Amino acid sequence: MSAAGPPGEGVLTLADGQLEAVAALVARHGLALRCVTPDAPIPGSYHGAPEAGLIGTDVWVRIDTPVHSVLHEACHAICMGKSRREALARDAGGDFDEENAVCCLQIVLADQLAGVGAGRLTDDMDRWGYTFRLGSAARWYAEEADVPRQWLVREGLLDDNGRPTFQLRA
């Protein structure tokens, strides 16, 4: 165990006052946030509760779901093509470039949430156990996310200034 505590300890969850803001953010992309009762299984969750689940354009959560997990699954739906999104039930799949774009976009979108931001989100990603070659999500984002950013711009998900377009990949 590290000095920060066990993996996942202290991460920001929807229960920390983020439910409405996250729901509004995913809705701007044409996605729906679907909340199940506490202790219920989360439909479409790849790793199991409290991780968010994804079925089509529905992002499934519980109140104890970490914000980074909701954003990650929402970004999978945003970054995949329409045909994959329509058939999606749990496993987002995708290639290396798309996964990197998902991680990059979730950090970009964190800046759209008051009280979250890129710094808090990358800290939570590290606490949860995301692994990056450079050792931390923040360092990866600062030093190696240029290619994923270019991918996001090319696919119309970020504008030329790196701001979200709130579109889904075609």
Count of extended strands: 3
* Total domain count: 1
Low-confidence stretches: 1-5
Percent of residues in beta strands? 5-15%
The main sheet comes to: 3 strands, mixed
Mean pLDDT: 92
Q: Helicity range of the residues?
A: 40-55%
Total helical elements: 7
Order of helices and strands: HEEEHHHHHH
Shape field: globular
List the helices and strands and how they pair.
Layout: H1 19-28, E1 32-35, E2 53-55, E3 58-61, H2 67-79, H3 82-87, H4 96-110, H5 117-128, H6 137-144, H7 146-154
Parallel strand pairs: 1-3
Antiparallel strand pairs: 2-3
Helix pairs in contact: 2-4, 4-5, 4-7
Protein model, in words:
The protein has 170 residues and is mainly α. It has one domain. It is built from 7 helices and 3 strands; from the N terminus they run αβββαααααα. The chain has helices at 19-28, 67-79, 82-87, 96-110, 117-128, 137-144, 146-154, and strands spanning 32-35, 53-55, 58-61. It has a 3-stranded mixed β-sheet. α2 packs across α4 and α4 crosses α5 (117-128). It is globular. Residues 1-5 have low confidence and may be disordered.
Keywords:
globular, 170 residues, three-stranded mixed β-sheet, disordered N terminus
